[in-house]
Amino acid sequence: MSETAEISAFTKDNPFNACVTDNRVLNGPGSAKETRHIVVSLAGSGLHYKAGDSLGVFPTNRPEEVDAILAALGATGHEPVMLPKATAPTALREALASKLALAGPTRRIVETLSTRATHAAEKAKLEGLILPESKELLAAWLDEREFVDLLAEFPSARLTPQELVDHMRKLMPRLYSIASSPRLHPHEIHLTVAIVRYQTNGRERVGVCTTFLSDRVTVGSTPTPVFVSHSHFGPPEDGSRDAVMVGPGTGIAPFRAFLQDRAASGAKGRNWVFFGDQKKATDFLYEEDWTKWQADGILTRLDTAFSRDQINKIYVQDRMRENAAELWAWLKAGANFYVCGDAKRMAKDVDVALHDVIAGEGGMSPAEAADYVKAMKKEKRYQRDVY
Asked: How confident is the model at residue 9 (pLDDT cuts 50, 70, 90)?
């Protein structure tokens, strides 16, 4: 019973204050990307995970963004504000730092500001944005802005700290696919994190949690609230079953965990990895791991697609089509097929390629190929971890 009690002690509602023990850049010099390998210690938590699970991380916002909002509000940060479902007030600075999302303003705050603006030009602009015919214009305009932009652009529309807070969403934890296996690393979790930095509306923006992990967590000291999110996603339960894994970019994370897991458990099934990124010289994430697993006979096949290494861009789905006959042979023999990464484009493109390979090599109509894929999903042979 003690182990069960340990497992349930830390959850999403009661996260464990973990310690980050390693934070290193995976990309080589000159890369257009910043991808980091982050190691989180589970020591003393009683938390358990399996290959395929995710780690939830509760970030804090950048102090300079909090300061900018306080300055725009004319607030000290000590003002008490009530948050939804709270039983006691929170100081405004703390609420902005760790409880509320500073991005994602909605139409509602534009409506509120339009009633508060005392400057004629500001009022006219706000009222124009909330006209029924301005719906698309407003969406595009808000997409470029965070709350601080609205406060800065409409200084005559004064809000109290509580009024601002009432328009803000809760700061949510972010989930990251785990890049390690507990068979190898029972007391720590590895993450593969793409650090997000960009500009909109003339301001520097960042991914809240990615830059929390890269910039604001001090290795060895900053308490980092985390919890394990258990997933349906995982390597074949039957170790003799083959696995085909498609994971470009940070989508490679769980497949590093799968390979560690299969190697440690002595799984006899073959492993085939498709990995893609921009340039081989700078963006071949965990290259040393894949090379070693190939040399050890753990990784049967590795097909890479580096989109910027030639004039015509090549992606993982192109490599699937090039190896259609072999891929169909693996699937026909019962291989599991896995995809991890970008849901908007990559996962859709890979799904289309999978259908095409099955139809072309299996001599099936599109409808028959679709039925085959449906059957794979039902048998849990086709699994996706997409975001």
From this structure: confident
Give residue 4's pLDDT band: very low, low, confident or very high (50, 70, 90).
very low
- pTM flag (> 0.90): yes
Answer yes or no: do 261 and 324 share one domain: yes
Domain membership of residue 346 as a residue range: 243-386
If you average pLDDT over every residue of the chain, what do you get? 95
Average pLDDT on 62-81 reads 97
Q: What gap in Å lies between CA 3 and CA 287, rounded to an integer?
A: 37
Distance spanning both ends of the chain, measured CA to CA = 36
Q: With contact defined as beta carbons under 8 Å apart, do 340 and 251 qualify? A: yes
d(CA 18, CA 20): 7
User: Is 140 in the same domain as 74?
Assistant: yes
Contact 372, 351 (CB under 8 A): no
CATH number of the domain to which 178 belongs: 2.40.30.10
Q: Do 109 and 12 reside in the same domain of the chain?
A: no
Distance CA 340, CA 271 (A): 15
Q: Residues 6 or more apart from 152 whose CB is under 8 A from it?
A: 68, 72
Burial of 88 (0-12, 13-18, 19+ CB in 10 A): exposed
Helix ranges, the chain (H) = 2-9, 63-73, 92-94, 107-116, 120-129, 135-143, 147-153, 161-166, 208-211, 253-265, 280-283, 287-295, 316-322, 324-332, 346-362, 366-378
